[in-house]
Predict the structure of Site-specific integrase.
Amino acid sequence: MSKQFTDKTIASAKPREARYYLREGRGFALRVMPSGLKTFVYIYELNKRKGYLPLGHYPGCSLAEARIAFNDAFNLVKRGIDPLNRKKTMAEEREKVEREAALEAEARATAADHLERHTFESLLKDGIPEDFTPQTVEQLAAVWMVRYSRPNHTTRWQESELCSLRLHVLPALGKSELSAVRRKHAITFIERLAAKAPGAARNAMKLCRQMFKYAYRMEWAEIQPFNEITESVPKIAPKADERHLDDAEIVKAWNEITNSASSLQVKRAIKLVLVTAQRPGEVTQMHRDQIKGRWWTIPAEIAKNRREHRVYLTDTALELIGDDTGYIFPSEGKNPHISPTVLSRAINRSYEEGGTRNVGKEAFNASKKPYFGMKPWSPQDLRRTARTNMARVGVIEEVAEEVVNHKKSGIVGVYNKYRYDKEKEIALTKWEDLLLRILRDEAEEEGAG
């Protein structure tokens, strides 16, 4: 066996006219070229074939590093593995890793450009490109607004959705990738918002649930993280509102509306909600073109449930509507008609005490003039009052639900398309008779007193 290499041995090896090898043993050698290039080499024999495996050039590769490489190669040969093939395979693997890293970097750059160019506002303004796949929550929100909400929701509802998105959802989750939003993120977002504004948190939860349900159906998201959030955040659970006015309150409300300082349009609209049992937002958008004789047809684009609805107009209803053309309850503001918020404020502003009053989902400052001095109520409570009293006059549940335009649930809603016009006429006529009797009897009692 040759003498073991040292750094001094390697450094003192001089070039000759032809290459030569210094051998230490077990195949570990130093190859010296005429040019003076020195290379550590492993010389081995495997399957009756001789192999020369370069281990590194000296001095770039130190003696200690060469020994490590030699021992690794030596052990491979002992296991019957050709280190030359192994080296080739490792080089190929290294090239593969480098190619994948380059592709990943390119993908990240493309994704960053995709996010920068396709923001929520730009997608709303410029439209959704063909075959566009949203990557983030804000992109999903834009696609959902353009492709789902616009065709299916009223303009007023879309405005509410945009407000929730811009104020709450997008600042918290907008830049998150869809695949990264998990249930824990949804709960944390809703919990933090609910601590400040439970109503806003409830609306944001419903909106996000619809968006991710849409994404799941389109196979853009693998889960629906906003499902069943209410059980995890009890604070956003809706509270059952069972407020309806008894007979004495009906009379008091009717008289106070009549004598209030509100505009004639507002007074008539509030009373019409009670007489017709329809939603305040649908009543305030009533237009002469929707009325034919004694029937008012609420268009699908106005109806909350997106279903066209026919309402029978009693004598009292026709009297409240009057003979005006265009919008029945016009507004002097930017909208052509008054809003349901105006009705709520007209009722709420005159509670006896000052400070803040919550009416429905709205919070208002109450003034000092008392003319609705009773337990707080809202326009929606008038609709509930009418619906409650229909049972009192013998209107069956199925017909009463049609009067207030509630969709039938389950298989009944799929197959029963009958619209109950005759039954609705009878129901609303019976309700009008009861309402007028309540107002008349109370007036007679006061007169007798």
User: Anything to note?
Assistant: Residues 7-81 form a domain with the Double Stranded RNA Binding Domain fold (CATH 3.30.160.390). The chain has three domains: 7-81, 120-236, 247-448. The radius of gyration is 40 Å.
